[in-house]
Automatic annotation (TrEMBL):
Pfam family, one: RecG_wedge
Protein name: RecG wedge domain-containing protein
Residues annotated as domain RecG wedge: 122-282
PANTHER family assigned to the protein according to its UniProt record, in alphabetical order: ATP-DEPENDENT DNA HELICASE HOMOLOG RECG, CHLOROPLASTIC (PTHR47964)
A GO MF label: hydrolase activity
Keywords: ATP-binding, Helicase, Hydrolase, Nucleotide-binding
Keyword ATP-binding: yes
A Gene Ontology BP annotation from the UniProt entry: DNA repair
Alphabetical list of SUPFAM superfamilies matching this protein: Nucleic acid-binding proteins (SSF50249)
Classification lineage: unclassified sequences, metagenomes, ecological metagenomes
Source organism (scientific name): marine sediment metagenome
Length: 341
């Protein structure tokens, strides 16, 4: 169950990041929506329960607020947490029956979620990881959710450099955000694939995916798409050949427009699938990992909190913090080795 201390740390981190909604991968709303029911279970004071329902964490809309509104909302939540701590210390009492505590206003939080599963649960609790897929992960020594959290990328591809189409350079890894003008199944040699024409305010470019004709149906006309990859020349024209792509939706990018993790793979595991599953693992389980290092050591050595380090190892905000995340995990290994654990 989520603790007051862990929620406080997340809110403090959000403040340190300037209320940019980056304290938790996937955004604060997604995190709170999953945790609201558990938080409510720990409240046994009528007044605090009413105030909690007014905060409406299960249906929070933090991501759509401006910075000032976010700051005010976080302060309100901090005030409520302080009152909750006073109650737990015995300064306020107004007990509720278990029946009253279980009355959750929204159905989404009353459903059992994946967070009810432990870190030692098999990775098959993630949708899409079938027993057959799990045997392939087992070849990489990944069997449990804990293993998946520590399944570090071998390197990153830097797709963070966004450019207008007119400034794309041959042979460099670059990212564009463009509108899909058309997409169709095309024939390349003896095999079918997908060809799309996309454009921004500076021009158009051809994008092709070999041996993937099914992609044509995934690209509706006039929809925004993020394309990341290496630009090449074909008959004197610039073209993206089999790049990474994501439709531009209201969610965090994981395949494009950022430092994209590349994981060790075995036959039958594919990069996009593995990134999708590790992202779900980070969003749902990283914040359940117990951080055993005392705060004094972390402060003295300038180490990240362990949940944050795990999140940044998989989906870092930049090269610098990726390095710090790896340092934290390496420190833990040496620390435990010295303790003889």
């Amino acid at each position: 169950m989520i603790t007051t201390d862990s929620l406080r740390k997340i809110l403090e981190l959000e403040g340190q990041k300037g209320y940019t909604d980056k304290a938790v991968i996937g955004g604060l709303d997604k995190y709170l929506h999953k945790q609201a029911g558990q938080i409510r279970q720990g409240v046994n004071n009528r007044q605090l329960l009413a105030e909690f329902d007014e905060l409406n964490l299960a249906n929070s809309n933090y991501g759509s607020c401006d910075v000032d509104e976010r700051k005010k909302w976080v302060i309100r939540l901090f005030d409520w947490l302080s009152k909750l701590e006073e109650v737990k210390q015995g300064t306020l009492t107004s007990p509720l029956s278990s029946r009253e505590r279980n009355k959750v206003r929204v159905t989404v939080t009353s459903r059992p979620g994946k967070r009810s599963e432990g870190l030692n649960s098999p990775i098959t609790i993630i949708k899409g990881i079938t027993p057959r897929v799990a045997t392939k992960f087992a070849k990489l020594d990944v069997r449990t959710m804990h293993d998946l959290l520590y399944f570090s990328p071998r390197r990153y591809v830097d797709y963070s450099q966004r450019k207008p189409i007119s400034e794309l350079k041959e042979g460099e890894e670059q990212t564009i955000v463009a509108t899909i003008w058309q997409a169709r199944i095309a024939t390349f040699g003896n095999r079918q694939g997908t060809e799309a024409i996309v454009g921004d305010e500076t021009g158009n470019i051809r994008v092709v995916w070999f041996n993937q004709p099914y992609l044509a149906k995934k690209f509706p006309t006039n929809v925004k798409v993020v394309i990341s990859g290496t630009v090449s020349l074909f008959k004197g024209q610039k073209v993206f050949a089999s790049p990474e792509w994501e439709l531009l939706e209201n969610k965090e990018l994981i395949h494009t427009g950022r430092l994209v993790p590349l994981y060790p793979l075995t036959q039958g595991l594919y990069p996009r699938q593995v990134r999708k599953w590790t992202k779900e693992a980070i969003d749902g389980w990283a914040w359940r990992v117990s951080d055993f290092l005392p705060s004094e050591i972390k402060n003295r050595c300038q180490l990240l909190d362990l949940p944050e380090a795990l999140a940044q190892i998989h989906y870092p905000d930049g090269h610098l913090i990726a390095g710090r995340a790896k340092e934290r995990v390496a420190f833990d290994e040496l620390f435990l080795l010295q303790l003889g654990v």
